[in-house]
From TrEMBL:
It holds the Pfam family GFA. The lineage of its organism: Bacteria, Pseudomonadati, Pseudomonadota, Alphaproteobacteria, Acetobacterales. Keywords: Metal-binding, Zinc. The keyword Zinc applies. Belongs to the Gfa family. PROSITE patterns: CENP_V_GFA. The keyword Metal-binding applies. Residues 3-122 form the CENP-V/GFA domain. This is GFA family protein.
Length: 122
């Protein structure tokens, strides 16, 4: 079941292949300030449905993660990164972290939230 999402102004729209089984709250400084809840997908499970020109990108410190946001309203929309499940970046296995708070017509309260201690991990 495809889930659609968008930023506040609607200039950045996307869809994912399925509803998340869980979402992640990261405690790193960027995620904490954004207030995002992340749902993770493979690149083939994610599709940007508006022109990429509507998306701006912020890269911090190591530059390994592209933190994307709407260039019009500023909502943090999705991030592109290597897989970190082993504790090291696996560039051969990229992940798309989608801000699940931006899903349209989706009951986010029904999805369990896990916490990653990003404040102390990176």
């Amino acid at each position: 079941m495809t889930i659609k999402g968008s930023c506040h102004c609607g200039a950045t729209r996307f869809e994912v292949a399925e509803a998340p089984e869980q979402v992640v709250r990261c405690t790193c400084s960027l995620c904490s300030k954004r207030g995002a809840l992340w749902a993770y997908y493979t690149p083939v499970q994610f599709r940007l449905t508006t022109p990429h020109e509507q998306v701006a990108t912020y890269r911090w410190q190591t530059k390994l993660v592209a933190h994307n946001f709407c260039s019009v309203c500023g909502c943090g929309t999705f991030s592109e990164s290597p897989d970190w499940s082993t504790g090291r970046p696996d560039r051969s296995n990229p992940k798309i972290g989608v801000n699940a708070r931006l899903f349209d017509d989706f009951d986010l309260e029904a999805v369990p939230v896990s916490v990653i201690d990003g404040k102390n991990l990176w």
